[in-house]
């Protein structure tokens, strides 16, 4: 069964390895490195048809270096992910999903946090031109667009942040709420034509600030938004140890109970996490999740979770 996964951090790992080579550290190869949860080998083994690759800049990177870090990750996407693998096709437009052939895999660029462009909307427009199709305004920290999910102040969007959402709408780009504060979430939902939670779970099941409350979930579904469950144990059970696929299914059950059976997907967060759900340690293990779902849901519903829901609700 084909999979569309809306979040991984392969590009950050590739960048850190590339920078480490000058100090004699071993390189990481996208094709088959054991250090990558979402290597090309693992993606193929897990039947991942389309993988979203996040550009993520750690908050410790000085402000005047953030754009350079973003460009390095984009360059690695073009050279290592797409450039060296003819079967991996860069999806730059939503219609490109429909052109993938048997044996081909789609790759999508996303941005996790507006830190990369600061308040320079020219840089943001460059990101659109380079093929970024989903933008989350924040990670967990504050930036010029909004507070992040773990910022104690919990503020919403700034004037700049609202302008970014409007630009996303104009370019038919997702606005990702996965790292938004509660106030930021509601600001986004008021403005966004294309909301997505690329990697979030249900807060009723696991009370973590990265998860969504029931009223947020209902509004996402009412706004034609997508919620893609994340595989991080901390957002699944609240404990980094001993999480099982059955625990993840509790979140899917809850989302379905709130009306989302046709708006649920997967956003693994592979290569951005260091603890794993048992039997779901990398992209090659996706079959274990699909097999577990097939025991509880109709095959057509599971196909929806895996890829069809996304295709039905993508921007057009």
UniProtKB/TrEMBL annotation:
InterPro entries: Metal_Hydrolase (IPR032466), Pept_M19 (IPR008257). It comes from the Bacteria. SUPFAM superfamilies: Metallo-dependent hydrolases. GO terms for molecular function: metallodipeptidase activity. One of its GO terms (biological process) is proteolysis. CDD domains: rDP_like. It holds the Pfam family Peptidase_M19. PANTHER family: DIPEPTIDASE, MICROSOMAL DIPEPTIDASE. This is Dipeptidase.
